[in-house]
Specification:
By secondary structure, this protein is an alpha+beta fold. The chain has 5 helices and 8 strands. Strands 1-2-3-4-5-6-8-7 form an 8-stranded mixed β-sheet, covered by helices on one side.
Length: 190
């Protein structure tokens, strides 16, 4: 018996995947659950987000995977997967959450992302944001973003991807159990 290799174009990716430099953005899989629990359970990751609680309660990672794979809820979520290039299978997560109800149809979303601490300061967040904005899978006319003011690195990720500063605001962080000052940004696409 012989194994025949089928040549494919290097730029051809399975449906739902987006090339992002050193990795791909791919849909969430059940097999990601353990790494999600480990990374999202890290206080540094949780406190850099609005919605991840700390400590991470039992079942939270499972609920995230279930929500991400359901296709419901108005949010598309991708994993930053570097396994094809010898990197980790889960480097982080990036998402686009639709801001409008279908009746308004303004084609606007909010981008969110986190990178596992082991991969901070590697440029992965910048590559992911640029790739997602360029692919524009939701056909948005504008993408908004919000970062905590004590996370200037995340603000640089956005400005380097062409986002423009809109102003200051604040939002509630579950992990911090407090309102946190934010900077808001927009990237117009149409």
């Amino acid at each position: 018996m012989t194994l025949d290799l089928i040549a494919t174009r290097p730029d051809a990716l399975p449906a739902g995947q987006i090339a992002a430099g050193r990795f791909v953005l791919r849909p969430v899989r059940r097999s990601d659950l353990g790494l999600f629990a480990m990374y999202a359970g890290d206080k540094r990751v949780a406190e850099a987000t609005r919605s991840i609680p700390h400590p991470l309660p039992p079942g939270a990672a499972e609920a995230f995977v279930t929500r991400a794979t359901s296709g419901k809820g108005g949010e598309d979520i991708w994993v930053m997967d570097g396994s094809a290039n010898g990197l980790a299978e889960v480097l982080g997560v990036i998402s686009l959450k639709r801001m409008d109800e279908e009746k308004w149809n303004r084609a606007q979303s909010e981008i969110g992302y986190w990178v596992a601490p082991a991969f901070w300061n590697t440029g992965f967040a910048s590559e992911a944001v640029r790739a997602l904005v360029e692919a524009n899978p939701q056909k948005n006319s504008a993408i908004f973003a919000e970062v905590f003011q004590d996370n200037p690195g995340s603000a640089r990720v956005l400005t380097n991807a062409g986002f423009q500063y809109l102003g200051d605001a604040e939002t509630f962080s579950v992990a911090r159990n407090a309102r946190v000052p934010t900077w808001t940004y927009i990237r117009k696409l149409a």
